[in-house]
Amino acid sequence: MITRKSSREIAMMQEAGKLLASCHKEIAKKMKPGVTTKQIDEFVEGYLAKHGATPEQKGYNGYEYATCASINDEICHGFPRNEPLVDGDIVTIDMVVNLNGGLADSAWTYVVGQADEKTERLLQVTKNSLYKGIEQARDGNRIGDIGYAIQSYAEAEGFSVVRDFTGHGIGPTIHEDPHIPHFGEAGKGLRLKEGMVITIEPMINEGSWNSQMDLNNWTARTVDGGRSAQYEHTVVITSDGPMILTSQDDL
């Protein structure tokens, strides 16, 4: 069932989003060679507790961590681990914050140490894909408009768009209808309406868009070893255009 959120619910989610964004900005300071994603995960759990929040995905379907930490060819749902990161790694940290019942979801890809030109281009195209999708998240548009904007841009730049994982509705639970594919046809799909809250979270690959699942039945990675990047925001559909709840720009 698709729900449209009240102004009170949106305000609660907005506070969760601000906290999540501030946490990502702190993670950026820590993402250096030698650090482990397990250390990042422990930092996130402590940071949220300090601010009266909890990591919503911990315990979700048995998931054990506060974050997902996906490295290089891992597309999503990577487990935090004790393996030190090295210069040139890319790491996507994805988390859902629950603050007083309000939820927000955001993923961000970080470079460890120095990025070469190829890495910078992957990350920039992925980030641009996110915002091109958000531009289409408007009252009266259709879900296909979001996916088409992302797919047409990313593929024109020589990258591929993961199809096995999508954005989704959010609040009061992590994953709700509707699904938000990052590929598709303009003018097709469910019509977006004011008050809907969704995530837009394109996963962009260097090579094939296809994924394969690790033996842990959580972590998805590319089939060809190409790297994958992801940026995600939680977005409200409003009469005045999309409102990003997890923006880091105003902090």
TrEMBL record:
<keyword id="KW-0378">Hydrolase</keyword>
<keyword id="KW-0645">Protease</keyword>
<feature type="binding site">
    <location>
        <position position="175"/>
    </location>
    <ligand>
        <name>substrate</name>
    </ligand>
</feature>
<dbReference type="GO" id="GO:0004239">
    <property type="term" value="F:initiator methionyl aminopeptidase activity"/>
</dbReference>
<dbReference type="GO" id="GO:0006508">
    <property type="term" value="P:proteolysis"/>
</dbReference>
<comment type="function">
    <text>Removes the N-terminal methionine from nascent proteins. The N-terminal methionine is often cleaved when the second residue in the primary sequence is small and uncharged (Met-Ala-, Cys, Gly, Pro, Ser, Thr, or Val). Requires deformylation of the N(alpha)-formylated initiator methionine before it can be hydrolyzed.</text>
</comment>
<comment type="subunit">
    <text>Monomer.</text>
</comment>
<protein>
    <recommendedName>
        <fullName>Methionine aminopeptidase</fullName>
        <ecNumber>3.4.11.18</ecNumber>
    </recommendedName>
</protein>
<dbReference type="Pfam" id="PF00557">
    <property type="entry name" value="Peptidase_M24"/>
</dbReference>
<feature type="binding site">
    <location>
        <position position="232"/>
    </location>
    <ligand>
        <name>a divalent metal cation 1</name>
    </ligand>
</feature>
<dbReference type="InterPro" id="IPR036005">
    <property type="entry name" value="Creatinase/aminopeptidase-like"/>
</dbReference>
<keyword id="KW-0031">Aminopeptidase</keyword>
<keyword id="KW-0479">Metal-binding</keyword>
<feature type="binding site">
    <location>
        <position position="105"/>
    </location>
    <ligand>
        <name>a divalent metal cation 2</name>
    </ligand>
</feature>
<dbReference type="InterPro" id="IPR002467">
    <property type="entry name" value="Pept_M24A_MAP1"/>
</dbReference>
<feature type="binding site">
    <location>
        <position position="168"/>
    </location>
    <ligand>
        <name>a divalent metal cation 2</name>
    </ligand>
</feature>
<feature type="binding site">
    <location>
        <position position="94"/>
    </location>
    <ligand>
        <name>a divalent metal cation 1</name>
    </ligand>
</feature>
<feature type="binding site">
    <location>
        <position position="232"/>
    </location>
    <ligand>
        <name>a divalent metal cation 2</name>
    </ligand>
</feature>
<dbReference type="GO" id="GO:0070006">
    <property type="term" value="F:metalloaminopeptidase activity"/>
</dbReference>
<feature type="binding site">
    <location>
        <position position="77"/>
    </location>
    <ligand>
        <name>substrate</name>
    </ligand>
</feature>
<dbReference type="InterPro" id="IPR001714">
    <property type="entry name" value="Pept_M24_MAP"/>
</dbReference>
<dbReference type="GO" id="GO:0046872">
    <property type="term" value="F:metal ion binding"/>
</dbReference>
<feature type="domain" description="Peptidase M24">
    <location>
        <begin position="12"/>
        <end position="238"/>
    </location>
</feature>
<feature type="binding site">
    <location>
        <position position="201"/>
    </location>
    <ligand>
        <name>a divalent metal cation 2</name>
    </ligand>
</feature>
<dbReference type="InterPro" id="IPR000994">
    <property type="entry name" value="Pept_M24"/>
</dbReference>
<comment type="similarity">
    <text>Belongs to the peptidase M24A family. Methionine aminopeptidase type 1 subfamily.</text>
</comment>
<feature type="binding site">
    <location>
        <position position="105"/>
    </location>
    <ligand>
        <name>a divalent metal cation 1</name>
    </ligand>
</feature>
<dbReference type="GO" id="GO:0005829">
    <property type="term" value="C:cytosol"/>
</dbReference>
